[in-house]
Amino acid sequence: MSTATPTIATAANFSTAPRLAFARVVRSEWRKFFSLRSLVITFAIAAGMGVAIPILITAFIGDDHPIRFVFGLLTQVPATSQALVLLAVGALVVSSEFKKNAAITTFVTVPQRLQVLAAKAVVVLAITLLVWATTLLTSLAAFYIRYGSKASLDDALQSITMPLLYLLFFAFIGFFFAAILRSSAGAITSAVGLIYVLPIVALMFFGYVPVFEKIAYYLPIQLTNRLFLPVDAAHPVSLTLAIVVLGVYVAVAGVAGTVLMQRRDIN
């Protein structure tokens, strides 16, 4: 009986435990990220794509393409390849806590669960920015090596910012789905289903319904594709609205994941 009392007291005092500095929690999550081989390998794959793909494009693309078009390819093609990898990174950062009851150790050390979730979100944001910075720097270097003095980045802001938003959407959809499901496989499968499978199923069953044609433009796959179209492209959804609706998707998943992380039992 005497050995059980401290455990019960500790569990009962989770809510009154002293709050650790957020910076310390972030550093802990950062170290945890690089201590997990699966996360390091996945991160390396995403970063490697950001180096290899721009180099291959500039090495083999013909000279008959407009320079502005080529720079768009250098940033967009790697992003579309890295998206699912970063989705997996986002999912693994959360779901790794629930393997072999590691979450018990984490939440005993940091009882404020939302603080842990926020620290993990900072790590996912930092990893996504690192991957994109690697891609962008490689793309710029390859672009200027290929075209030299002819290289021009006039009006290239969209080619720089939209792929980053694209990657952030995938990373945080995976992140919050994992907070909801506590499973990397479940989170990745569900997120891929939402983005890629749902439009196909909906088209099969509701493609003949006129109103669905309008609704379909607001599904994630259509909105993410809209990010890569010119600002003034003829499209039912404006670029600004597409960004807002994608943010709503992430926000809804984020609210659900945050509430469930806070209220559910650890086990």
TrEMBL record:
Transmembrane segments: 39-61, 67-94, 121-144, 164-181, 193-219, 239-261
Keyword Heme: no
Lineage top rank: taxon: Bacteria
Keyword field contains Protein transport: no
Signal peptide: none
Keywords: Membrane, Transmembrane, Transmembrane helix
Protein name: ABC-2 type transport system permease protein
UniProt organism field: Bowdeniella nasicola
